[in-house]
Predict the 3D structure of the following.
Amino acid sequence: MICTLLTVALAAPLSGPVPGPHSTPGTDGLEALELRWDARAVEHLWNRAAFGIRTDEIDVWVKKGPEALVDHLLAPRERSPEKSDRRWTYRGPSIDQVEFEQRTIEERREYRTRIRSNYAKEFARLRNHWIGQMLRREDPLRDRMTLFWHGVFTSSYDNVRHPELIGRQHETLRRHALGSYAEMLRSMLRDPALLIYLNNDENRKGKPNENLAREVMELFSLGQGSGYTEIDVQEAARALTGAGLARRREVATYRFSEKQHDAGEKTILGASGPLGPDDLAEILLDQPACATFIARSLIEYLEGVPLAGESGEARVARYAARLRETNYDLRFFLRALFLDPEFYRDDVVGARIASPVDYLVGLHVRFGGGVPAPFIAEASRELGQDLFRPPNVKGWEEGIAWISTASFMLRGNVAGALVGRIDRKAVRRDSEAFFEDLQEEGAMAEMSAETMEDASRAQARRDAMNRLTKSLSGAKYKPRRSAYKWLREEVGSGASDAAIVAALADRLLAVEPPAETLRMLQGRLESLRLAAGVPAGAATSGLLAKSKRATKTAEPILAEICHLIFSLPEAQLH
Amino acid sequence: MTDWTQPTPSRRDFLRMGALGATLPSLGPGALASLALPQGSPALVMLQLSGGNDGLATIVPHGDDELYRRRKTTVESKASLLRIDDYRAFHPRLRAFRGEYDAGRMAIVEGCGYPDPIRSHFKSMEIWHTANHAGRLSGEGWIGKLVSHAWGATAAPDSVIHLGGKAPYSVFSSTHPAVAVASPTAYRWFGERAVYEMAGTAICEHEEGPGQGVRPSSSGPEHVGRDRALALLRKTLDDAAESSDRVRRAAATYQTPVEYPSSPLSASLRDVASLISGGVGTRVFSLTYSGFDTHSNQLVGHGRKMAAVDGALGAFLQDLRRTPEGKRAIVVVFSEFGRRVAENGSKGHDHGHAGPMFIFGPAVRGGLYGEHPSLTDLHQGDLVSTVDFRSVYATVIEHWFQADSTAVLGARYPVLDFLAS
């Protein structure tokens, strides 16, 4: 790939008296870092601000420069009325309490079953709708940031149990994701799904429930250990009394009940008065700790490494100050961050562990598309990121926590299914062979044929690959061949093993692999090629020769190399 | 021409053995098993009840009128409780607990907690996971430290296994990452093991002589971030490749006459039983079971949880007693905090502090330990702890694993008597 190198002298991203965080003074009085705008920087920004980029799309952004790319990512997308299907809305009935009461027991049961099955259908549609948006890459930065905020202002479908409310919360987060955090916080304190998830619909005068009050301080605004006290939590719980729901026919909406609200004097973080939910939001937004917490969370999420040391703290402080001065303008914040040379420092580039959604959507982008959204939803769930069902109120833990020995192997298996190496039959065959081996070795001597079949079935039930390959065959999925076609165009039909491996790794990986990894892949390709009887010339591998027969031999080999590349440690990074 | 597709022991195995100063006499498929821990080693099963289990609804102080003054809608009827003595009783659904207690195989350590209690789930859990008030800032998880201190370089990758998707911080270690697996029988990479190992070591299969090992070769300062992440990922992949077959076999071949209830917790505990009796050599198993954050309608929700834990643990303990390896296992049950003494406005309880810990197993000296916290002498409405939970850890470290608890926990905590020294 051509590495056009542009060293860009950046103007302040937005005019104003505030110095931009990108004009970072060096820590030891050294010159400020400069932003090296090259292919590596372009791919880095697409990895973090979106879900990756195809190799052949990079050069144009190298030429256009950083401001053009950042503006492109931040630019509002049209959501014209004729495209209103882009906004998810619930379809179908909800349980109507009044009507419900008038029915016979038999009718109620039937009614409930019908509603439940509709809920399940609608919930699946919501997840697929969001993933579909990510896959289309129309507004990738908004999708990225909505995913971030979904992990902050968490609500789980398991508790809320109504797809409409979860869908409305999603749309609210989406609306504010590139807007203002202040507006987002205010909206969330009136969000039905969040109020249900944290029991605030049961928080009443004289009978406070402090669940929301605690979490809003600890996880949504100030951060644990930032100086608020238990008394602040209890007073905030009083301020939130009465912030609940009105449930009517098909919808539940926010309702503030004066009757259930404790209108007495309260003191929260030094502010006193007959404080209510809206006052609480303003008090929180007014705390320096709030801007610090939000700035740190955003930077650490997008950079993928913890901010530490004096320079890290100073950076957080600068960004936090800007957040406060701009009334928590997130567009402004992201623009500054994406133009900050620190965002492109060597510690950061290629060092972030891809979450399951990052990994799967990234695979779709790089391998050539066509991955069904329901499959991504299911695979992501199996890998630990179940959209709209975060594990707890703190959301998902990012970083190395995504990787366990089991999820590591499962990621490789999922990729193997997507490149066409593993299907339902292969899963069954693998399981049968495993049990046959055990029996041959005498490890299962005492098992009857029946017990064995039970064991095999029990194993299949708990095997994620069994479910996932079923989902793929249900969707009539066929792996795209575009990566292989692209390969021949890119390196030519006479390319060497080394050139083939380098091109594939460049396309499929979000980070540059070390030399030894390329050597290992080259060795593997050579073995497979020789085993298939494809001879090599002095400098050509012979694998990409232009004939039907050669293609038929080459594609399974290339698929195996793709499978191995997606299973690499390098493939977990972006 | 060598057939590279045969699943022979990889060069990585030689390297590893070389590094340990040993040579492999034979290269059969069982060669690696020699790295496993000796069979019959003591095992520890840590069961975490996430969300804050209400201790006062688990071991109920029915002899204290104060309880009934503070709790109206969240108490079980006195008649239904399973009495221990005039003061305390088990929750009505804890029938198996009661059986274990009566048989002298269950220790109840009352009033467990730590100084300067924190009511955040996440911070408090970190404190339990690291045995340190600073949480993660203090370093690795306490089990991770236990592995380093007690078994060091000889620890096999599957010395610690978490049964479930995401491992808790307690088992976190940068040098000995824990194996974490939700479905042990499906724990594998599709493809040849030797190839998968290449992915982890990046050793080219045609390359002669030692390869790079798990540390990435430095490709210049611009890759410093990537290489740091790669080193940990390669180690994890390496452990996955090595533990996969052993774990999968033990789980798949396990047969037991004990009938477990049908629940995810039961299934995971059955897997633990299979790995213990399969002689994988695992020292510490970890499991988490969530749903204890009962801010509303506690009576129903908590009752269901009690029944589920009781059913699953009851079957598991019965299963363990069948085998010699199983008899060498203990189970420790904990939660990040107890709940507020008084009920809130939603028939639930908000976050509190002290709560009981439970230790099960044939090697346990059953009975009551610690001291039941006062229901009237409260700190901000919460029970004040009477025992530092790290004393329970220290007891396990000293008397179960014969390791130095001060080294692992960073401080000296009094050792309790629930295990013979």
